[in-house]
Amino acid sequence: MAVQIVMDHNGDTRHVFDVNNAKELARAEKRFRELTGAGFTAAVRTTSGDASVTRRFDPTAEETLLIPRLVGG
Predict the structure, then answer these.
(1) Which of 22, 35, 43, 69 is the one with CA 20 to 30 A from 16?
(2) Domain annotation covers residue 57
(3) Among 25, 17, 12, 13, which Cα is nearest to 1's?
């Protein structure tokens, strides 16, 4: 199972999906594209435990963190 963790003003929401289920995988890819298209930054956890920014949906990533754009002022 893989997870997308979406950060927002309320904390985070976890979306768990099975990469072997075509419907769940398509829904996860759509969520990724919608959020990154809206300005969210996506990062995947590497095997060493670090985070690496990504611009493409990676169905093999066990954990993807989606962080909203920060607005300074």
Answers:
(1) 69
(2) yes
(3) 17
Q: Does residue 72 form part of some domain? A: no
CATH code of the domain in which 41 resides: 3.10.20
Q: What is the pLDDT of residues 2-34, one digit of tens each?
A: 999 999 888 999 999 999 999 999 999 999 999
Rounded CA separation 7/30 (Å): 17
Residue numbers of the domain that contains 49: 2-67
17 is written with which tokens? 């999906």
DSSP structural state of residue 69: P
d(CA 42, CA 29): 12
Query: Is 5 within 8 Å of 13 (Cβ atoms)?
Result: yes
pTM here is 0.89
